[in-house]
Amino acid sequence: xxxxxxxxxxxxxxxxxxxxxxxxxxxxxxxxxxxxxxxxxxxxxxxxxxxxxxxxxxxxxxxxxxxxxxxxxxxxxxxxxxxxxxxxxxxxxxxxxxxxxxxxxxxxxxxxxxxxxxxxxxxxxxxxxxxxxxxxxxxxxxxxxxxxxxxxxxxxxxxxxxxxxxxxxxxxxxxxxxxxxxxxxxxxxxxxxxxxxxxxxxxxxxxxxxxxxxxxxxxxxxxxxxxxxxxxxxxxxxxxxxxxxxxxxxxxxxxxxxxxxxxxxxxxxxxxxxxxxxxxxxxxxxxxxxxxxxxxxxxxxxxxxxxxxxxxxxxxxxxxxxxxxxxxxxxxxxxxxxxxxxxxxxxxxxxxxxxxxxxxxxxxxxxxxxxxxxxxxxxxxxxxxxxxxxxxxxxxxxxxxxxxxxxxxxxxxxxxxxxxxxxxxxxxxxxxxxxxxxxxxxxxxxxxxxxxxxxxxxxxxxxxxxxxxxxxxxxxxxxxxxxxxxxxxxxxxxxxxxxxxxxxxxxxxxxxx
Length: 513
What we know:
Elements: E1 5-9, H1 13-19, H2 24-28, H3 31-43, E2 47-54, H4 57-65, E3 78-84, H5 90-97, H6 103-108, E4 110-116, E5 124-129, E6 138-139, E7 144-150, E8 153-159, H7 172-188, H8 195-203, H9 220-229, E9 233-237, H10 248-259, E10 265-272, E11 278-291, E12 307-314, E13 318-325, E14 334-339, E15 345-359, H11 367-383, H12 385-388, E16 393-401, H13 402-410, H14 417-424, E17 431-439, E18 442-450, E19 460-465, H15 469-480, H16 488-498
Antiparallel strand pairs: 1-2, 2-3, 3-4, 4-5, 6-11, 7-8, 9-15, 10-11, 10-15, 11-12, 12-13, 13-14, 14-15, 16-17, 17-18, 18-19
Helix pairs in contact: 7-8, 8-9, 15-16
C-alpha cells in the first residue's frame, strides 16, 4: 500500500520538502525555505507530519485551467506538511490520531500547514501558519478561521493564507489579492476566488498590457477590476500622486485605520537595488504592524506614526514578513528583511506607490475624509495658540463594527454604568469610524462617525468626552474660526457645550494646557 504519511523533525525543511518530491538543487537557493525555517523556529515548531497525495482546491482549479493543457505533465496531487509544537514519534502521533493519549495536546500544539505543489520551482502553495504570538505590540487583525482535517482529526487555526506566485497562473499581485480575499470573504461573505480566477477577472477587461496566462503581473487597473469581480469596491490611495512614493504618514494612517477592522491592504510599488535605482515593480499584502509604546506623532498628531514595523505576505519571501520603516533609502521608505541559515541579515528596499483596500460596498466613507476633519481641528488649534494656549492632540482613527465599539464601551472603566447604558442603547450603523483623541497626553474624547453615510458631510452618531474642557476648547476655536463650524467634530463638541452651560454665553479666553 502506498505510504500516506511521514513524521520529521520540523527544523529540517530541506529533508521534508525533498520527501515531497522537490529537487534538492532547487532547495539550495530557495529564499522561501530559509525564511520559513526561521519563522517556524520562532513559532517553536518541533514536529512535521507530511500528508502525501493531498488534493488542494486552489491548485486543482489552477491545474484544470492551465497546467492540464501543458505538454509536460506535472501532476495534480500535492503534499501537505503540518507543524506542531510537540515532538512526535510514529507511536505517539498514532495514539493522538486515534483520539487516545495526547489528542488534546495535538489540537493545542497545532501551528498550521504548508501545501507543496508538484511544480519544479514555485512549489510553495497554500500556506496557513499562525502569526507571531510572542509580542503584544504586534497587531494581526487581518486573519480568518481555517478548519483543517488531518486524517479525520479536526484542527483549526486563525491566520491569513499565503502562497508564492507560480509565474503562470498567478503573479505577485494575484497572490496578494488571493490572501486578502480569504480574509475579506470571511468578513463580508463574498466568494473566495482561486488564483486563476482572480487573474482571469483582472485581465478580462481587454486593456491589460500583458496576456492572461501565463501571467506576468497585474497593473493598478487590473487589481481594481479583480476587487470589483469579487463583489467588493476598490479604495485606491495614491492615484493623485502620479507614481510618486507615498508619504509615511499616509501609509501608516491607512494601515492603522483599515487593519482596525481586519481589512488587509494591497501595496503596489517599486523594489530598489543597493544603489537606490528602481529594479522592478512588486505587490504584496499588508496584514499587521508593530506599534511602539512611545514615539513622536509629529505635526500630524497621528497615533499611527508610532508604527515602526509592518508585516506583509510577500510572495517572494513568506508569510508575515517584517518591513522596517525608515531603515532604507529616502525614496523607498521601508526595508523588507530576513535572516538566513548562517544568521546573516538580508533584505531589499521597497517604496509603496499605491495602496488598494478591498472594501465592503456599504462602507462609503474613507479614511482620508475622516482624517481631514481631525487635521482641520489641529490647524485651528495651532493658529489660535496665542489665545487658547498651546495644545497637543493625538488622533487614533480606526474603522470598526458598531458591535466591537459596544464591547469596548462595556469594558471602559472610565464610564459609569449609567453612561454605558446610554451609549449601548443608542442606534448605530453597522460600521463606524472610531476616532479617539488625546488632549495633552490624556484621553480626551471618542467620536463615532457613520462609515456608511452616503452624504457629502460626515455624521457623528455618538461622542464620549473624558475631559470636560475638550468640548469647551473646541467651542472656543469655533468662535475664532467661523469656517470651523462646518466641521462635524466641532459640531459634536458645540452640541455638548450647548447641552450643559450654553454656548451663547461662552467667552473666549486663555485655557491652560
